From TrEMBL:
Name of the protein described by the UniProt record: Condensin complex subunit 1
Gene source species: Littorina saxatilis
Entry annotated with the keyword Transmembrane: no
Region spans: Disordered: 953-980, 1296-1413
Homology family: Belongs to the CND1 (condensin subunit 1) family.
Domain Condensin complex subunit 1 C-terminal residue range list: 1065-1226
Composition bias, Low complexity: 1299-1310
């Protein structure tokens, strides 16, 4: 063959001849000649191996004019080319098997290879470009269920591409280098083939699952180029370049590297790629986030796929751990994690691998505290994978858990999420025990430790000089004074002594420490100190210098930094050496015991038990430490259950479920806290809680149905024990959901009834009550459970057992109450379920109350009575007659006790304890009856009337529709509706009048108890029993709730009890009652609201808490106007009680959501809180204002506040108020308009700038504003303000110095007897405070004061820091022994009227009784 085929750069190069033997295309065939030439090539391609060489011009012509040709002809050419390539591959493989290939054959085959692969690559590139151009969306997305790529004629290009690439790779995998002489393929050939393969990778569809075969073929082709054609360096550079520009190539490139390393044995390419990534400019990585993300993912994947090849090259990318790009940090750390899991967690590591493993773990631990949240979360994910793969070394577990505990309170929700997941995973994979009860482990540890001490031989203890800590402390304290003297003399005389010759080169750190100890014991203290100083110079990182003294606990030492800049403390170091050599270290004891045992082994003594005991003690010690760490996380995770982030809630729930399964002692606290989440608005959270309790209490049971049901009942009963009212309410909602979803089987219900009725052996009364409570909870969702077993409830729950167990009777009442039909929202009223008044249920309840009344120890009688009255009014037909009978019987008993007390000689002015007890129960019962009678009338009776009216109306409408006659005056639907509404209003008014006149007032039973009730409340001396006074105050509140007339009469008494009662429980109950009365009779309570605010300063924490809650409820529901007393609420932000502080902050947070409500009260709150007479400290004032101003974000509000606050400077009377106003101004965010407002009102505060704090606040405003404006005009405004501030400040300083010098001169003149004229001194008289009261905005009418020119201070108008409300005056005092004349204070209501009453549209809320703490 006389010509040579040169790889062209472009197709046109084949048309121009540049050398003698170069092959050129003589003619590009015309469109008319191409079909015949293609047919000839098609025939030749079936059998001739060199068909491509013979017909190269025809195929090249097709490539050149393919746009003008029929697509079927081009596809036919492509398929013929593939067939020719396969035939040529078969011929070439047999040729290359020969050892000596003739020159002409070699040249022919080389030309054929070049031509064949050139045409094949050209066709592949052409079709690939056409496919991407025809489907650009596919090219961009590259994933999803997209349509297959096709050519114009409908050819499936993906299948054709796969076949073409495989044919290309098959040829490349032959020993083509034999065709070159020397056997080194030319660069143009390698570049041509590799470029084609890399272009195929640029298409995003290559990453899809359908293209796996093509992707593998490309990888093997590039692998062949790397192995046989010296393409390694070029491939590494190209891979890095592709990763930077094509993010979809992360996985394909990692797969390519894996194939090159594992199939073609080239490990160096991994190092080349990592080196290029390591050389990446950190600034470019920070800017190019897409490229950095691709590099990061690639590093993680090669760490997973080829960890052995990656490990030696990790050092070249470690620089990115300290750079700005957090994405690359994630990649490097993720790569380390994969290497740790796949290589460095195995057994039998060499020294290099152990060092690498420890280094990787250290890096991962360090970055748990990375400054970027994404890195922290990524590192926690890496640790999570390590723990799940069981690759975490046991010595690192304790430190890791300690670090994770700190991340539970991270600011990032993602970090918190993975921290909780990691903690849960560590708990699941812990190597210690399945049950981690701290109490049980502590007992076992102490027991086994004592046993080890008994088993330890005495000579082994004496061999290590075993002493107690107390003995060592005493011994140390005897030598300490001498050491301190030696240290002092050494510092005075030998501060610059050369320490380089203190020891020889043969000495080690341990030998020097031993020498120091020897000198210490020989009382050669100066020499010991000198040698210690030399040792510190040589080995500053020695443990005795870094660790804390012996008396400091290890926990404290961990909190201190490892590297301290403070100089070495010689005394502490010597103490460490002393304790290290003298204390009975467990390791030394074990070593001595081992040596001793070895000596005894030769004598035939068994020592296996001792070794086992040592291992057991160490195991228990590690288990106890781990359990305590897990228990530390419980309080933090309990807080995260209330997080706004649902991921926190989900993970915390999962942790508590897992920890409860592992027996962690404190986990029950979290399990109880989870109950409240059943009320969450997020359905996913509710589902997670239900699933958690299902897993804990339902699915954990195993065995037969009976045994599973028993286990479920026992588990659920544990939640009842010790539960609060809120817990029980939440548990009832949970049980209702479980019942509705069918999770509670009939077997569980059956076991509950058996346990309640004591049919199961060894059932305690507490377990019986718990079962009854669970039955009542389940009955809320399925009332038939109670309806069908009503007789059982009455016989067992209210039977003979109830005489001695009033809690059981109360639970039975709760269960029976489930029979009462509750109207749901949007549901029509149904006929109520009522029982006849002579039903034995009510008979038994009446007998229980009357018989239990005479018992002295009946703490639960009043709750039972309240529950009973509620039950009677909900289920009885004539409830008032039944309750009246109870009151009559108890009143008769009271009369008998009074007579018996009088016959016993009881003094007139005193009430016996027995009478007090009966009277307490009578008043409590009367109050509950009054309240329930009100609810019965407004809800039960009125609802029944409306129901009957609705039925009659429906019946009338149906009747009118059925009649065919038409009225002469038809009644429209609107008229019918108005008539019905009018009837309802009339009935409601009638019921209201009945409640007003005929329940607690008028001629009825409860009205006759009014005088007695008022007498008990107004005579604390005679009725001094605490429970009696508590019950009387609650009954008084309930009576007042019923009638506005009675409420108006007794308001003074109620507020007196609220303010003057010595019992905090009565004061707290009165607060709650007044809150309920405010909802019912707002106009009556409104004049008394200042007294309500006054309870925020009550000495009792309980009273302050309930006052704050009541005020919050009233204000946020618009029942109280926000007035000047809001400052009292603001002062609660700095209350010493954290709960009150949190409630106050929550109030202002909610108030800020109600439009501009918070902005409107801010000026008044500032005025009041800065008043010295209010007594708020300046530091507390600043804390309050910082919180309140954090809600002022709008520019318009800030502008208005700037102006208002500036005007208030005019009326200030002391420097404290200057500072407070200035501090408030510094808290605002300033816009350009706000700054202009500040400039316009500069004269208001110009003369106050002499104060350092005031000036500092304004400089803070300037510094905050300087960097926040881009406009030049705003910057000029800031500069002008700063200049004026400096001028006024400096001028004030100069005037102050002048005044000071004048004062000194005047004093000196008077001392020498020089008398001047009697001109009064200027600027020295302090204006007195005026007691006048005025509006807060009175300063708006005054002129701005001029900047002062001398030291004389002008008299300024006084600002009154108060609201428009009158001062709070104490109503009256109550003395214990006073019985009359102590309630004469005037009411703030000027005239009695009925205007305070409002229509009773809703049932009154039941008053809550606060139990005595």
């Amino acid at each position: 063959m006389s010509f040579e085929f040169l790889i062209p750069v472009s197709r046109d190069d084949l048309l121009r001849k540049t050398s003698v033997n170069q092959y050129v295309v003589e003619e590009v065939l015309s469109r008319s000649r191409i079909p015949a030439a293609v047919q000839e090539f098609k025939q030749a391609s079936r059998s001739k191996p060199y068909a491509v060489v013979d017909h190269f011009d025809a195929i090249f012509s097709v490539l050149t004019v393919q746009r003008d040709l029929d697509s079927e002809l081009v596809e036919e050419t492509w398929r013929s080319l593939l067939r020719a390539c396969k035939v040529f591959h078969t011929s070439l493989s047999s040729t290359l098997e020969d050892v000596d290939i003739p020159a002409d054959t070699r040249q022919l085959n080389l030309t054929a290879v070049k031509m064949t692969l050139y045409l094949l690559c050209q066709f592949i590139e052409m079709y690939q470009a056409e496919a991407c151009h025809s489907n650009p969306i596919m090219a961009k997305k590259g994933h999803g269920k997209a349509a297959k790529q096709q050519t114009k004629n409908g050819m499936d290009w993906e299948a054709e591409r796969e076949e073409g690439v495989q044919t290309l790779v098959q040829i490349l995998q032959l020993h083509l280098n034999k065709l070159w002489d020397p056997p080194i393929p030319e660069e143009d050939f390698v570049s041509m083939v590799s470029s084609c393969l890399y272009k195929l990778l640029e298409n995003p569809t290559i990453a899809s699952a359908r293209s796996k075969e093509t992707r593998d073929a490309i990888s093997h082709g590039i692998g062949a180029l790397v192995k046989r054609y010296n393409h390694a360096l070029s491939a590494s550079l190209k891979i890095v370049q592709l990763l930077k520009h094509f993010e979809h190539l992360v996985s394909p490139m990692a797969q390519l590297v894996e194939i090159i390393v594992n199939h073609y044995g080239n490990r160096s390419i991994v190092g080349d790629i990592m080196r290029e990534i390591g050389r990446m400019d950190p600034r470019d990585a920070a800017r190019d986030t897409s490229g950095a993300r691709a590099y990061s993912q690639f590093l993680v994947e090669i760490g997973e796929k080829v960890p052995a090849a990656t490990l030696p090259n990790v050092s070249v990318v470690l620089t990115h751990l300290d750079e700005e790009s957090y994405t690359l940090r994630n990649g490097v750390l993720g790569m380390m994690g994969e290497i740790l899991i796949r290589i460095l967690s195995k057994e039998g590591l060499d020294s290099y691998q152990k060092v690498a493993r420890d280094g990787f773990f250290d890096r991962l631990q360090d970055h748990i505290h990375d400054m970027h949240a994404f890195v922290r979360s990524k590192v926690l994910q890496i640790w999570l994978n390590i723990v799940n793969e069981k690759c975490l070394p046991l010595p690192r577990q304790e430190m890791l858990v300690g670090l994770v505990l700190g991340r539970l309170q991270d600011v990032s929700s993602q970090v918190r999420r993975y921290a909780i997941q990691l903690l849960t995973a560590v708990l699941k994979c812990n190597p210690f025990a399945a049950k981690l009860s701290v109490e049980e482990l502590a007992i076992s540890y102490e027991k086994e430790k004592a046993k080890l001490g008994e088993m330890m031989p005495e000579d082994s203890m004496s061999a290590v000089g075993g002493r107690s800590t107390e003995e060592l402390e005493e011994e140390w304290n005897t030598i300490l004074p001498q050491l301190e003297e030696a240290l002092a003399s050494l510092e005075d005389t030998d501060t610059d002594t050369d320490t380089s010759t203190a020891f020889t080169d043969e000495d080690t750190s341990h030998s020097i420490v031993d020498k120091v100890y020897t000198l210490l014991m020989e009382e050669q203290y100066p020499s010991a100190l000198h040698l210690l100083k030399a040792a510190y110079t040589a080995w500053p990182d020695l443990e005795v210098f870094q660790s804390t003294p012996a008396e400091i606990s290890p926990e404290d030492s961990e909190a201190q930094p490892a590297e301290s800049e403070e100089p070495m403390n010689p005394i502490a170091a010597l103490k460490n050496i002393f304790f290290e050599h003298r204390s009975p270290d467990l390791a030394k004891i074990t070593e001595a015991a081992t040596n001793n045992s070895q000596a005894r082994e030769s004598e035939g003594v068994e020592v296996n038990e001792l070794s086992k005991q040592q291992v057991l003690v160490q195991y228990l010690k590690d288990s106890l430490a781990f359990a305590r760490q897990i228990q530390e996380a419980v309080p933090i995770l309990c807080q995260l259950l209330g997080s706004k982030s649902t991921s926190d809630v989900f993970e915390a729930v999962e942790f508590f479920v897992t920890s409860y399964e592992f027996g962690v002692s404190a986990s029950l606290q979290g399990v109880r806290k989870m109950l409240v989440l059943i009320w969450s608005k997020e359905q996913s959270v509710k589902d997670a809680v239900v699933a958690a309790y299902r897993r804990l209490y339902l699915e954990s049971a195993t065995g037969s149905q009976r045994s599973r049901a028993l286990s479920v009942v026992k588990n659920l009963s544990k939640l009842i024990y010790g539960a609060s009212c809120g817990d029980l309410t939440s548990l009832e909602a949970l049980m209702g959901q479980l019942m509705q979803s069918g999770e509670l089987s009939p077997h569980v219900i059956q076991v509950l009834w058996e346990r309640f009725t004591l049919k199961i052996a060894d059932t305690t009364p507490q377990e019986s009550r718990a079962a009854l409570l669970l039955i009542s909870m389940v009955a809320g969702a399925e009332t038939d459970i109670v309806r069908s077993n009503l007789e059982v409830l009455i016989d067992e729950g209210l039977g003979p057992r109830a005489d001695d167990d009033q809690l059981l009777a109360q639970a039975a009442c709760q269960a029976v109450l489930k029979l009462a039909i509750k109207k749901k929202k949007g549901q029509t009223v149904t006929e109520p379920f009522r029982l006849p008044p002579d039903h034995h249920l009510f008979t038994r309840l009446v007998d229980l109350l009357v018989s239990g009344m005479k018992k002295k120890e009946s703490r639960f009688w009043i709750p039972l009575a309240e529950q009973t009255v509620t039950l009677i009014y909900r289920l009885a037909d004539q409830p008032d007659s039944i309750c009246g009978d109870i009151i009559h019987r108890i009143a008769s008993s009271l009369q008998q006790e009074i007579e018996a007390s009088a016959s016993d000689g009881q003094e007139e002015g005193e009430v016996s304890p027995v009478v007090s007890g009966v009277l307490t129960k009578l008043l409590a019962l009367a109050g509950q009856v009054a309240l329930q009678q009100l609810v019965y009338m407004e809800v039960g009776v009125l609802g029944e009337l409306k129901r009957r009216n609705a039925l009659q109306e429906d019946h009338r409408v149906k009747k009118s529709k059925s009649s065919k006659r038409k009225s002469s005056v038809p009644e429209t639907e609107e008229e019918m509706g108005l008539a019905g509404a009018s009837a309802d209003d009339a009935e409601a008014e009638y019921i209201r009048k009945l409640c007003e006149k005929d329940i607690v007032t008028g001629c009825n039973l409860l009205a006759t108890l009014q005088p007695l009730l008022v007498a008990v409340c107004t005579n604390p001396g005679k009725y001094s029993h605490p429970e009696l006074r508590t019950a009387a105050s609650l009954a008084l509140a309930k009576f007042m709730t019923v009638s506005s007339e009675f409420c108006e009469q007794q308001l003074q008494l109620m507020f007196t009890l609220m303010e003057k009662s010595p019992s905090e429980v009565i004061r707290a109950n009165s607060i709650i009652a007044i809150g309920d009365l405010t909802f019912r009779f707002p106009n009556l309570i409104e004049p008394w609201t200042p007294h309500l605010y006054g309870r925020l300063r009550d000495p009792s924490r309980l009273v302050r808490k309930y006052t704050l809650q009541v005020l919050t409820h009233l204000i946020l529901n618009d029942m109280l106007k926000v007035k000047g007393q809001i400052s009292e609420l603001a002062s609660c932000i700095v209350d010493h009680d954290e709960q009150i502080c949190g409630l106050a902050k929550l109030f202002f947070h909610e108030l800020a959501k109600k439009g501009n409500a918070l902005y409107n009260i801010l000026p008044d709150a500032i005025s009041r809180l800065s008043d010295p007479e209010v007594g708020v400290e300046e530091e507390h004032f600043q804390i309050i204002m910082k919180y309140m101003f954090s809600f002022i974000q709008k520019d318009k509000l800030c502008e208005s506040l700037v102006e208002k606050l500036c005007h208030r400077y005019r009326a200030t009377v002391n420097e404290r108020q200057w500072r407070d106003l200035s501090f408030c101004l510094s808290l605002l965010s300033y816009s350009e308009k706000s700054l202009r407002k500040l400039q316009e009102n500069f004269s208001c505060f110009a003369d106050k700038l002499v104060d350092e704090s005031v000036y500092a606040c304004f400089t803070t405003i300037v510094s905050k504003s300087r960097g926040g404006f881009a406009k030049p005009e705003a910057k000029v405004l800031v500069d002008e303000l700063e200049e004026r501030l400096e001028q006024c400040y400096n001028k004030g300083l100069d005037e102050g110095e002048t005044a000071q010098r004048a004062s000194k001169s005047s004093s000196a003149a008077q001392h020498h007897g020089k008398r001047g004229s009697k001109t009064p001194a200027r600027g020295t008289k302090t204006p007195g405070r005026r007691r006048g009261r005025g509006k807060e905005n009175v300063e708006d009418e005054t002129e701005s004061p001029a900047v002062r020119k001398n030291t004389r201070r002008k008299q300024k108008p006084k600002l009154v820091f108060d609201s428009d409300e009158d001062d709070e005056n104490e109503l009256f005092d109550v003395e214990d022994n006073d019985q009359s004349g102590c309630f004469d204070a005037p009411s703030p209501v000027t005239a009695r009227s009925r205007g305070g009453k409002v229509p009773l549209g809703k049932p009154a809320r039941p008053l809550r009784e606060v139990s005595s703490p």
